[in-house]
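To the wet lab folks,

You asked to see what we're planning to order before we commit. Fair enough. Below is the target structure as tokens, and below that is the sequence we designed to fit it. If anything looks off to you, flag it before the synthesis order goes out.
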């Protein structure tokens, strides 16, 4: 048996927290030992506590706009410290352990510093090569050398891998980071590449809830949620897991168990939608306060303008979320969209340059917004959900600035200072604390 476990920053925030992680690892080995054979364990670790935030703050105090390459070099040190300490603790308990950086684990990325994407993984390439050679009848002695993680596992070691990082897939092997929550992606990607039996994500909450339990104390923990629903929740601001990690899990069929590192309580399983017998109409409400709105007003209403605007933003590596274009008036229109707060200043500068090139009227920016969303796979076939959501906000006198929808999600941009009130209103309006309790069952 091969198990991948990921421990987030809150789970390794101090030495006492790390001792609990060691205890959890020991419990996992004991629970899954069969005929005296312990499971193979790959443990992904984040930086300790708020260390990443402190390093980012340090960089911004050193200079207004830290160079992305050097920022990655700095941020990667947080995970390096964590894996070394955890490996030391495991060895002190008599266990064989080996810490590896992302590059040593064979995780290669593109060169987009601070939000790199995985391009290839040595463990996955080995698995694919072996599968092909087996089909061709090639004997094992002629297979390629095993990747580093498999070699360490064969030596009976627990492999402790730095989350959140990799190296570029070129001769420079530059250190890169995978963006906020990138340790989730590291864990899911390695679980897929190593064909792990399961992937456990340990955090400071007991699973995925119908809303952030710090905002809604009566929010209900979900037993199961589909990849699609979790992906929408993550992209809408739910902090439990990174959106890209869920996309990866869906694409490679990695079943994920999100659970608390502080208790032994069963958490939330993230699984393919077809495994869930009954679909809850509404699953959860999510909030993102990491949003900023930009508008370019009075642009010519001619073909190619939107492509030019969003192409320029894409070239700068800026991800755009909600996009609204007004109806044309007198040959001009307005285009509004949202970006992450961290990209606000850079995106605004690009828009201002484009406004001059396009003879637009002006650029407006607002970093004080929030996005609130309702998600549920049953929304595909249920009418009236949008009206119910808008009514709940109207009853609290909350104005909606932008609206975006997908098959299973409705999102509204509102004022940031009304965000918590909006979450409570929607959660209560849809009675999420009680609905769907009997619907969350898996197919046998």
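Sequence we intend to order:
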């Amino acid at each position: 048996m091969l198990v991948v476990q990921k421990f987030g920053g809150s789970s390794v925030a101090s030495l006492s927290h790390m001792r609990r992680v060691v205890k959890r690892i020991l419990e996992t080995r004991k629970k899954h030992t069969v005929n005296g054979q312990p499971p193979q364990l790959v443990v992904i670790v984040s930086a300790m506590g708020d260390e990443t935030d402190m390093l980012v703050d340090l960089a911004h105090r050193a200079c207004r706009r830290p160079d992305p390459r050097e920022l990655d070099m700095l941020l990667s040190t947080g995970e390096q410290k964590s894996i070394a300490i955890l490996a030391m603790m495991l060895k002190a308990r008599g266990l064989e352990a080996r810490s590896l950086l992302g590059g040593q684990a064979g995780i290669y990325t593109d060169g987009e510093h601070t939000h790199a994407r995985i391009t290839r993984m040595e463990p996955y390439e080995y698995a694919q090569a072996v599968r092909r050679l087996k089909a061709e009848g090639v004997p094992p002695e002629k297979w390629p050398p095993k990747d580093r993680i498999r070699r360490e596992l064969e030596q009976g070691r627990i492999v402790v891998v730095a989350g959140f990082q990799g190296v570029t897939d070129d001769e420079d092997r530059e250190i890169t980071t995978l963006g906020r929550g990138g340790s989730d992606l590291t864990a899911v990607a390695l679980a897929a590449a190593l064909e792990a039996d399961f992937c456990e994500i340990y955090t400071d909450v007991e699973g995925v809830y119908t809303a952030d339990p710090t905002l809604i104390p009566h929010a209900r923990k979900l037993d199961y949620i589909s990849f699609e629903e979790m992906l929408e929740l993550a992209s809408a601001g739910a902090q439990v897991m990174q959106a890209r990690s869920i996309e990866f899990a869906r694409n490679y069929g990695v079943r994920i168990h999100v659970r608390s590192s502080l208790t032994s309580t069963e958490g939330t399983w993230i699984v393919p939608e077809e495994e869930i017998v009954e679909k809850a109409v509404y699953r959860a409400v999510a909030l993102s306060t990491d949003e900023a709105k930009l508008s370019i007003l009075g642009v010519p209403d001619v073909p190619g303008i939107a492509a030019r605007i969003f192409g320029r933003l894409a070239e700068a590596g800026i991800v755009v979320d909600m996009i609204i274009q007004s109806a044309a008036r007198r040959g001009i229109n307005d285009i509004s969209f949202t970006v992450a707060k961290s990209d606000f200043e850079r995106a605004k500068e690009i828009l201002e340059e484009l406004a001059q090139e396009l003879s637009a009227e002006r650029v407006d920016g607002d970093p004080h917004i929030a996005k609130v969303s309702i998600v549920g796979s049953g929304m595909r076939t249920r009418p009236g959900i949008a009206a119910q959501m808008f009514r709940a906000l109207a009853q609290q006198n909350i104005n909606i600035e932008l609206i975006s929808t997908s098959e299973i999600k409705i999102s509204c941009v509102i004022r940031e200072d009304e965000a918590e009130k909006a979450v409570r209103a929607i959660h209560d309006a849809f009675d999420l604390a009680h609905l769907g309790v009997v619907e969350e069952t898996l197919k046998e």
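Structural context that might help your review: Residues 437-444 have pLDDT under 50 and may be disordered. The longest helix spans residues 68-92.

Thanks,
Computational group
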